[in-house]
Amino acid sequence: MAQRRPLAETRQLLVDAAIRVIARQGVASASTRAITAEARVPLSAFHYAFDSYDHLIDRVIESVTEGERAIAVAAVEIDSDVDADLETVVLRALDLYLDVLAAHPDQQQALLELMAYAQRTPGLEGRARDYYASSFALAEGALATRAGVEWTVPPAEIARLAIVLLDGLTTTWLADRDTEAARRTARLAAASLAGFAAQRVQV
Amino acid sequence: MAQRRPLAETRQLLVDAAIRVIARQGVASASTRAITAEARVPLSAFHYAFDSYDHLIDRVIESVTEGERAIAVAAVEIDSDVDADLETVVLRALDLYLDVLAAHPDQQQALLELMAYAQRTPGLEGRARDYYASSFALAEGALATRAGVEWTVPPAEIARLAIVLLDGLTTTWLADRDTEAARRTARLAAASLAGFAAQRVQV
DNA sequence: ATCCCTCTCGGTCGATCGTCCAGGTCGGTC
DNA sequence: GACCGACCTGGACGATCGACCGAGAGGGAT
Known about the structure:
DNA-binding; elongated; 9 helices; homodimer; Arc Repressor Mutant, subunit A; Tetracycline Repressor, domain 2
């Protein structure tokens, strides 16, 4: 009767189940029992696979942020149409993100809740900072791939502004769910970011 | 032995205590027992003063958001130096906000956590939307007081962008606590917002 | 066949949660 | 002095939480 599974597989099963539960019902409702029920494994399997609840959450954060990073990298690579205007490219990226957000709002809300949980939990405090740091680096890398664009301010500052805008767009949309208004704001945001670029130089 | 107090006073005592506990330890730790202990009131007084836990949280959200609004109104009124450049005024307001944020980070974190809690709790879902709606209106009002400034896009859209920027600045700072970087980003944000103003007309 | 290590699972622990209630104390009104 | 309604409280309820234990099942190595 017993399901025999390699330990690593059970761990992945639990992490995935935890993400689904957190997305659907929030971190507060993601108890060990709710997660194991979602994963269809006995409650006792939880503490066999993980030393503690927070160890699981740590892995969950790792998994979610890695997923975010992969999506962002893919989006940047797809949207590297060098012939298009800079502002157009930025706006297209933001609109693409809003599509993802509107399609899977629970995912982004889960990420925010996890960050808040991490900041309140001893041993996980650094996770939020690390996530933003890697976001900055990713954005700066994306800026660097736009060959031939000079910036009037350091690219690192542009990258931070971009993340700030993305973050603000997210939290604001999550609160009022007004996609049309968010797209209008995205238009302004794209114009703002592009405004810090000097005219393109010939390559 | 019994402390005799008007009911309304006990209510206010509990609301204030709840805000302190939430700011210090987060919503998750703000149990009825933690709150009543903070308020130095017997546990049983809790359900004498409030029908339920969520009724208290509702009042807490009301109190916190009203406090935010009052601060914002005061800041706008103080910072209405008509002789200064628009970008300077905006930047000064943002820097002022960053001062408040750096001085009382728990307060802003508490607000964000309360919004997340409200969105997950039946009966409180609208609170987050209402808060952002009033923030937009407040920002738009602040823009309107700058007589003689014409905007190249509707003020309502500028107002939304301003709130998005403020929100992004907040969440980002709360994650990495890098005040210097936040001030640099604020500089870019102020320049962006001011960039949507047409040249000032003579009045 | 024997051993051993990995894996599984039901049951239960103590702590903490929000909520409730019966009874008690007070100040004011007849 | 009798009464009443507003105010206050200790103690308990059932539910749920993270964590833990010991007995057993399974499969490969010897």
